[in-house]
Amino acid sequence: MEFLKLYLDHLVLGTLGFMSFIMLAFAVERYIYFWRIKLAEFKHIELLKVALTRNLTSISSVGSNAPYVGLLGTVLGILITFHEMGQSSKLDVNTIMLGLAMALKATAAGLLVAIPAILFYNGLMRKVDVLVSRWTALQDGHA
After folding, report:
1. E strands of the chain, at which residues?
2. pLDDT (tens digit, 9 = 90+) per residue, 50-105?
3. How far apart are CA 61 and CA 64, in angstroms?
4. What's the CA angle centered on 30, arms 113 and 136, to 5 degrees?
């Protein structure tokens, strides 16, 4: 329990920071790739879709799992607070409230990672749809 008390914030916020870094790196990579892509080089639509959607699953996974990482941090923080209350001979409302408030920051951090990840994912998926439509128009000779 002492290990969790000392390192919970570092573990949760470090994990969320790593997830955020991965998400941002993949999002930037995809935007650069979409900007430079030459649709005429693709002969089959399925190969185009595979190339366009590379790394999007990772961005989506960060968006859907970051709140759970934050929630896990909050639950463990509350567990630590209750454990401390049980070990103490007196109940101090200020200590309890401080412990609970600090535990909730993990959920907030999870949401701060998830919201941009979902926004990036949705924006990138829209760009995939546009590029596939442009490729289809090129194949039909309308572009």
Report:
1. none
2. 999 999 999 999 999 999 999 999 999 999 888 888 887 777 788 788 888 888 99
3. 5
4. 130
Q: What is the CA radius of gyration of the chain?
A: 22
Alpha helices in the chain (DSSP H): 2-36, 45-53, 56-87, 93-139
Amino acid identity, position 89: S
Give the 3-state secondary structure of residue 86: helix
Per DSSP, the three-state class of 5 is helix
Separation between Cα atoms, residue 104 and residue 79, nearest integer Å: 12
Q: Give the position of tokens 């955020």.
A: 20
Q: What are phi and psi of 124, to 5 degrees?
A: -70, -40
Per-residue tokens: 143: 């572009």
pTM summary value: 0.88
Residue 64 to residue 117: CA distance in whole angstroms: 8
The two structure tokens encoding residue 58: 């990772």
Closest CA to 124 of 44, 42, 28: 28
Which has the closest alpha carbon to 51: 128, 130, 106? Answer: 128
What the block records as the tokens of 137 is 């128009």
2 φ/ψ angles, rounded to the nearest 5 degrees: -65, -35
